[in-house]
Amino acid sequence: MDKHIVKWLPGDNPVGDMFNEFPELNVRQVARAIGVNETLMQQYVNGTKRPATERRKEIETYIHNLAERLAAVKLE
């Protein structure tokens, strides 16, 4: 299995796990990009607060869009 394919079980912290798996992602910058309070995003990452399903989907969508933008980069 690819080391970057992460499967989460119910009750885990998927937002925190994702940021731990990809430390090159900046929590503050992701929060700003999607319009979430930085402190609240850090609480999601730390597991002290749980984002609603809609918020988790918003974070996931942003990460997927970022990946597409990165994949299109050409350093010629």
The total of beta strands comes to 0
Mean pLDDT: 89
Count of spatially separate domains: 1
Count of DSSP helices?
4
Into which percent range does the helicity of residues fall?
55-70%
Largest sheet: none
Classify the beta-strand content into a percent band.
under 5%
Structural class by SSE content: mainly alpha
What does the overall shape look like? globular
In whole angstroms, how far apart are the ends? Answer: 32 Å
Q: List the uncertain runs.
A: none
Order of helices and strands: HHHH
Rg of Cα set: 13 Å
Sequence-ordered SSE layout with sheet pairings:
Layout: H1 14-21, H2 27-34, H3 38-46, H4 53-71
Helix pairs in contact: 2-3
Summarize the structure.
The protein has 76 residues and is mainly α. The chain is 58% helix and 0% strand. The mean pLDDT is 89.
General description of the model:
By secondary structure, the protein is mainly alpha-helical. The protein has one domain. Helix content is 58%, strand content 0%. It contains four helices and no strands. It has helices at residues 14-21, 27-34, 38-46, 53-71. The longest helix is centred in the last third of the chain and has 19 residues, at 53-71. It is globular, with a radius of gyration of 13 Å.
Keywords for this entry:
mainly alpha; 76 residues; 4 helices
